[in-house]
Structures
1.
Amino acid sequence: MENRFGFRDLVICVLLVCMMATVWIAMLQLDDHKRALNLITTVLKEQTGDLAKIRRAVEEGGSISVAPHPASTQASSGDVAGGGWQGRDLDPFARIKLAQKMPGYAVGDNFISSFGVLPDRLTPLVSQDAYAGLIQDYVLESLAGRDPETLAWVPQLAKAWTVSADGLRFEFILRKGVVFSDGEPLTVDDVVWTFKWMMNQEVEAPRARAYYEKVASVEKAGDDRVVFTFREPYFQAFELAAGMQVLPQHFYSKYTPKQFNEAIGLLMGSGAYRLPDPKNWQHEPGKPVELVRNERYWGERAPFDRMIFRILENEAARLTTFRNGDMDSLGPTPEQYRSLLQDKELLARTQHFEFDDPAAGYTYIGWNQKRNGKPTFFADKRVRRAMTMMIDREGIAQQIMLGYANVASSPFSRLTKQSDPNIKPWPYDIAAAQKLLKEAGFEDRDGDGILDSPDGKPLRFKLVYPSSSDVYKRAVLFIKDSCARAGVAVDPAPTEWNVLIQKLQQRDFDAISLAWSGGIETDPYQIFHSSQIAGTGDNAISYSNPELDALMDKARATVDEAQRMPLWHRAHQIFHEDQPYTFLLTRTSLSFVDQRIKNITRVTTGLNPRLEWYVPTDQWKWTKPAPK
């Protein structure tokens, strides 16, 4: 049969070609529209930041300078003793401005890291874990902050301050032009309201109130001035006043204390980053915690578009994710760190850091001394000391932590003046531990290999620890074996993080292994003072020692460092003798970061803040630069 190509077929072909051309042109136009939209978005973001700077400059009566300009790196001496206005000539963004002058500096792309657990909540004051605190530090700001290298105080929300000669009155001048992430201005009223809200007994903030109870009042002294007045001298008085994170009254005052206490994710501030939705962050397993740049920020623009924290509870999963290039940083276990150092391919595209940080804190086992109103085995300090001496802490440091840890002897870092260098950790000594237990009345009365109390109860207990950590698991099994040699039965109790927090608050545990963060000079009041046993205070082990209480009270009221340190040294001696905790280890900080992240440096407090890091445009990975 003859197959002919007729006129009708020609018309159809022409129409098809025209349709295809139209679709192709439309796709090109759509792509152009997308690029244009990206460009417009970028320009709008830049204009928002510029307008914020212009507004602040006009309101403060200064000159307008949108482009970064050189700034002195000279920091305050940190002396906040009375006399004159301090901080006035210091630039809080001097370090960031130096980074902006580095080759390839750019603002953009994402930074992706991970959390070992999903925070229970992000609402400030009532949140409990360090991960929530990290998020809040990007969103909330205080009146002043510390230079990460010199530790001197530099202005933040306040542009200057003065201190009375007696060290009881601190007056701050607030900056003009500062707004919260929703555009509402930050005022003196917000500072005053934050303090009153925190001190409201209906708000579940015992940790904060344990410190701020020393503040008699926070009062408005003018449209841009606020005064903190203390009841008595306190060695960290300026830090309390300057470091109080300011909450927006207009946002939080809509909620009753009960609603606030129960809220999962109410978080708004004036910081460089914000939650995408400050009212409705949800605790969703598997979903990362995400921050976006606050384009209304009053200061220098944050370097990353987004900061994303993936929830990876399994340590092996975190390692695999980092190896695959799906994450920018990793806090490896010692075993992982040692392994990564042998991976030449990985070393070529990453940078790594290891250092002993005085603020790194310590791991511990807390011995609960009272349950249901009755004393436990651990109410006897001989038992607690015996528990410490039957645990081979040096063995844990060497065999599990591979030498990236040191045995601790108190809550004070051995790298600081607060620690008494003459006190050495209790040694691993099974015989001495058994002798102490015998003095306390414990013997193996039924021949089953487990020591029994005078009333016949076996010395057996559950040791609660975070189920997500393989390092904790291995350490607890190590501890179980050590204790078994002394006739003490330990039942490991791996517990999901949110349940673990509930157990702490309800004092529903025999013993618990966790970690506290540290500092250059820490105040142990919130953890060990007997006043912090009540309610959900941090003295969850119900430890009480009147002499230590008196020492802490006196040390806190002693402003002169030379007179204060001997008091802390005596406190160190009591911690050593009483062993309210078995102070396990201080860990060496270990970190791997993608090579594309620039300007990471070592400072006194560890690594410099991420707000100083950046990624050159040609190395952006998670986003694409807008067309020029």
2.
Amino acid sequence: MKTSDLFVKALENEGVKFIYGIPGEENLDFLDSLRSSSIQLILTRHEQAAGFMAATYGRLTGEPGICLSTLGPGATNFVTSAAYAQLGGMPMIMLGGQKPIRKSKQGRFQIVDVVNLMKPVTKYAQQVVDGNNVPSMVREAFRLTTDERPGAAYIELPEDIAEEPTEASIFDVVGHRRPDASEVSIDLAVDMIKQAKLPLVLIGAGANRKRTSDSLRDFIDESGLFFFNTQMGKGVIDERHDQYIGTAALSSDDYLHCAIERADLIINIGHDVIEKPPFFMEKNGKKVIHVNFDAANIDDVYFPQLNVVGDISNSVTRLKDKLGIVDRDFSFFGRVRDEVDAHVTKYFKDKRFPVLPQALVSLLREHLDADDIVTLDNGIYKIWFARNYECYAPNTLLLDNALATMGAGLPSAMAAKQLNPNSKVVSVNGDGGFLMNSQELETAVRMKLDLVVIVLTDNAYGMIKWKQEGVGFENYGLDFGNPDLVQYANSFGATGHRAESYEHFVEILSRSLNGQGVHVIDLPIDYSLNHSILNVLLQESACIV
């Protein structure tokens, strides 16, 4: 068979069902091989969006999402989505085309050294120079992208290699069992927890990736320990749990940091150094146990005293079995929990218009079931959702606290809906981020997705405005105009809505969630409390519990 046929068969052998992307003339052999395969090509309108969809596929399934581009400008459009997957711990494989490498009559036209461009933002980047190497390269890319810590890979298939004959055969898919933590480290961790006066559990992104929800919930239930989570650790344990304190959406000053400051031991499960630090360690301060697949990366604010290295779920189960009930007076943590709850819910029923982000959080939580999904683009509203939105199940609030790129919210929602057709999916975007990949509305309509897209309009880059105000600078350089989003949505075949009041928005939201097709809601947002709460009130408030 020709090399492109072998490449597609290698992908089928790995269980690939979808490829997102935009092919070019350098992919024509691959495209023809794909035509007669079991894999579905989902054509997008921008390569970056294809990468975001593939990364989200990887995030939700644990298996690499696959995306395709041509050479040069098509491949360079993958760079941001590669970084998104790499920093976010999402398995993804990018396939790129290239001019003939043995003989080309087009000189250097469109040629960029994409392989070396991709190396800093991937775990693996290689060009196929011989068709016989395809089976091993595909197998290695799948192995590396799913191994902890997950990330991105790039394979470039030149058009002359794609059409060459090959007699190579497919490699078997061989997995491996992650090693368990040593008995010594488990015993040391149990001793540290028993000796601590006020131990506290932190759940991070690594615990969310590997479906450790059941073992972690059992650990919390049986030990009686209180817990909080990072932004990307939300939902690993149902946040309605009595021992849940809150989400560390900020690195300091928020109300739950009262509990972090008082704790003398943090049991940090699934910590990912890429996330914004949920707390700052200081020398001669509290102790930290690092429970993860790998030992901790040490920096100025994170230097744990013990590493428990091995499969997280297994480590947590063994800790639970050896630890038993931690008999401590945790009433202080209970008071912090109540204080956090009182503050984050304060504006939930506020019906002012434009709407407050806190009220939006409350409305979405009321209208969505436990397994329904909210995806966020990046903006100031992400902090409000991280602090205020209760997650009842893993991966039901998809946000990016790693690369934190704009433009990912809509493509992420599309992949989430494709994988969860029976769940409601809502994409929340700022007007800045939405317009960065809004062309994918056409893709969503073509895919016949039932999707609700909320665009928070303040005609500015609101996150940077908040930062600008926080450091005392004058408002400058961050305001813009928007198109008529209703007409814009309608032009793609979606249904556009513009909320005119709080009550009108509630009506539109309910109708859209229960309707069919893609619904885009233009929702004016009131960010007037951002500075007064997040910059002023939190920093001035002492721990009063």
3.
Amino acid sequence: MDYYEYYREELFARQTPYLQWIKENEKRITEKKGKHMRRLAFSSCTDNTADIVNGSLRGGIRDDAVYIFEKKGGAEQPDAEAEVAQAFKDNEDVRIVYADEDYRGSLEELYGLEDDGTLYRGAPWFKPDYSPDTLASFFYIGSFFAITGAMLKQGVEENLSIYELVLHAIDMDRKRVAHIPKILYTNNSLDGIDKLEGQGVAEKKTGQAEGLVSVIIPSKNNSAVLEKCLNTMAAKTRYDDYEIIIVDNGSCESEKNKVNEIVSTICAMKEGLEVRFIYEEMPFNFSAMCNIGAKQAKGKYLLFLNDDTEIISDDWLENMVCSAALEHAGAVGAKLYYPDRSKENGCYLIQHDGIANMGIGPAHKLCGLEDRGNLYHGHNLVTYNMIAVTGACMMVERGKFERAGGFDEELAVAYNDVELCFRLYKAGYYNLVRNDVVLVHCESLSRGQDESDEKRRRLENEKQTLYHKHPDMKGRDPFYSPNLVQWKKDVNYNVGYLYACDREVLPVRLDDKTLRTLPKAHKNKYIRRLTGESRSMLTIDDIKTDDIDAPHYEAERMVCITGWHVIRERDNSLADKALLLRDADNNDNIYILPVYPQIRKDVAKLFESEKATSNTALSGLQVIFNRMALAEGSYEIGVIAVVGNERRGYIQWSGSTIDI
């Protein structure tokens, strides 16, 4: 294969991560056969089971058999039957088994590339494990599932639809349902991919919107923001049965007096509203402040709310109560928006829509995305079960909160909400986000963003504390597929394929013989000038030495260098490159690290007018390595490149250094 063909293939691969994921994950697939299973075709989850069975099965339904329902307009994968059989074999309590699915479409439809007339697989739908509130929202079970004969027979006798059959078979018992986190079915087209099938069809189980809600608001020296929060709550909240408890950990005297004035004004504005102001000087500890408020609360439901939130809909509180009242519900969360100033194109930007426990740790999903359209099968539209929700707006029924032990005060600032949600989930409850409960949130306005080195270290320490308390939850989230992105910051739900540049590489010290063969420019501080200007252009965008999104948990030991390198007046598809690290105290102490292609469309645009400088789309640099592989010191970053059969290499030092 010549260089250009390799370049084109690599460029295609960089733009089609799911196709690369398929190659990597389906190498193991062979056409295995399990026990023989009967297939039943259906068109919609509202189809009647009796009609389907009477039209397809002769000889009746066997209680001990397994029946696979396949949606028309697609096909199962070769090992689907064997995978289903194994799922039933692994757990005798299982009555329903479902799996992931994907779609066929053109390159333009799936990947935004020029269409070549061929249909490709794409748009994978990696589903969560059993999620009762999601299933009540729409039929997320999808196009392929299997059921025991005994349950199917009941469905036919009771004249149930497919949707009703699944709900009846599971009956809120997570032991009865198994999710196979593998793609076992491919839809023949993208038609209906944005449709939430069955939405509004199932009779949702909701609790009664009744009972006192204690709204607990930690706050300090933030009277103007607190006033806006309370004013919008009093003006826009339709649900009347609530009290407010403000917990202040040490405002100055003027701010304290201002809060007392605000409380008086709010109470006068809303007749019968009780507002208590608890003042206790102490270091900031969100968990302790929430627990103090909970002990003073009179309500059946506890709503923990940041003072930098604003109410924008009148039904938010009653909707949260309806979910919190459900027997199976743990923490109930809301969708949060960034403030008006970030509203673009008439559409709010999402700040939070649930927390996923990724490999790199807890992460807010859909953060920074426009709340427009259907984001990954309704994650922004309907109620979804999540492993955790943010403490910026979280409701828990009081008894469940007390049985869980309240907030863990060892986690003073971060991850205290996640830790509580972990305990609720382990106790058998399901945490959930209601997308019809929406607030505006001026994120971290009260205590500032976690941007300083000290705050980042504290954040990392609290994350370690979280997993020390819950080692079984490291990298585990039943509501976030292991096939989705785990080791990068990813707010959406993208396939978790790691390219070579995402993986750790090993620095190798160049020996004396190799050093002598390198171009002179390698040992000089400045670039060798060719035809009056440098042909080798190197930019280092970022150097991270902690909190690296690398595939392991010792992220603080990693280094990540990103940037780009282009050789002007050359075909860059012919270039072999490596990263160089030169010891500032000893220029002969040089390490070399492999560089794998990374797509940089922005760089390609920079050089699109230079016809002699071609194929620059894969000029990106990203190198991740363990800092323990190098001796302590300061290292200058450079790049060495060789183009095709040219005898002279191109070497450039960036001037950027990294301290190890």
